[in-house]
């Protein structure tokens, strides 16, 4: 005997929420794959300065997102199937998966909040080391000049800050993106430190919004799944 009345409405409401949750998992998976293969980040984070690799903290977060997106799609499907079948076992498993996933999301959010400034800081330190080597003529064995030029061309920037760029124009023609004139080069070139901050802060902001939306959906789903499970149990008594 199936559920009736308000419980039946909750059943279909849970199905709709789970379908949205499944879609959100697919979107997060797609965004994570896009971030993983984004030309700006891959050009920078695949660089190597001598024996030192560019910081990969950002990619750790991306791999976590990929895993979360895939698990969300599985859990969303499980919730949809459990709601339609009115299975207490599937709904209980779904609720348990949601609790674990929610706990992991909170832990990942705390990790991301703690490391949000560290990611850009590590990349800026990597850039500064390459920049110093390029200026001192130590770039050949350590590939410093190539690393700096990749940063400049990818982010359309020049130098660690505008002050250094203004007083040391001699290296600009060799390392920075070409402009129509030296004056235009001096005026329009942005600090690479600023560009690095903009690159990662924009992406982390997008990830943060997605995490909040998913967390709200998960809370509603946990409540609805428990209410539906109790409704199924009560309807089976009669």
TrEMBL record:
SUPFAM superfamilies xrefs: Tetraspanin (SSF48652)
Compartments in which it is found: Basolateral cell membrane; Membrane
InterPro entries named in the record: Tetraspanin/Peripherin, Tetraspanin_animals, Tetraspanin_CS, Tetraspanin_EC2_sf
Cellular component terms (Gene Ontology): basolateral plasma membrane
PROSITE patterns in alphabetical order: TM4_1
Keywords: Adaptive immunity, Cell membrane, Disulfide bond, Immunity, Lipid-binding, Membrane, Transmembrane, Transmembrane helix
Key word Disulfide bond present: yes
Example GO molecular function: lipid binding
Gene3D superfamilies the UniProt entry points to: Tetraspanin
Membrane topology: Multi-pass membrane protein
Biological process terms in GO annotation: adaptive immune response; regulation of cell population proliferation
Signal peptide positions on this chain: none
Disulfide bonds: 157-192, 158-176
Transmembrane portions of the chain: 12-35, 56-84, 90-114, 204-228
Membership in a protein family: Belongs to the tetraspanin (TM4SF) family.
Record's protein name: Tetraspanin
Gene: Cd81
């Amino acid at each position: 005997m199936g559920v009736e009345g308000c419980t039946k409405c909750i059943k279909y409401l849970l199905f709709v929420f789970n379908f949205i949750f499944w879609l959100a998992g697919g979107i997060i998976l797609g965004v994570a794959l896009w971030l993983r293969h984004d030309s700006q980040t891959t050009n920078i984070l695949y660089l190597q300065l001598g024996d030192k690799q560019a910081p990969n903290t950002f990619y750790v977060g991306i791999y976590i997102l990929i895993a979360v997106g895939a698990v969300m799609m599985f859990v969303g499907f499980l919730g949809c199937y459990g709601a339609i079948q009115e299975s207490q076992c599937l709904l209980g498993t779904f609720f348990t998966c949601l609790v674990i996933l929610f706990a992991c999301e909170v832990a990942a959010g705390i990790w991301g909040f703690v490391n949000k400034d560290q990611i850009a800081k590590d990349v800026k330190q990597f850039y500064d080391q390459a920049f110093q080597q390029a200026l001192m003529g130590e770039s050949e064995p350590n590939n410093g000049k190539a690393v700096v030029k990749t940063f400049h061309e990818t982010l359309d920037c020049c130098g660690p800050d505008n002050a250094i760029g203004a007083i040391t124009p001699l290296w600009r023609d060799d390392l920075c993106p070409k402009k129509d004139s030296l004056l235009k080069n001096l005026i329009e070139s942005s600090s690479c430190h600023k560009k690095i901050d903009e690159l990662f802060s924009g992406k982390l902001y997008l990830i943060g919004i997605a995490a909040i939306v998913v967390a709200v959906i998960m809370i509603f789903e946990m409540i609805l799944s428990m209410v539906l499970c109790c409704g199924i149990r009560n309807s089976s008594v009669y």
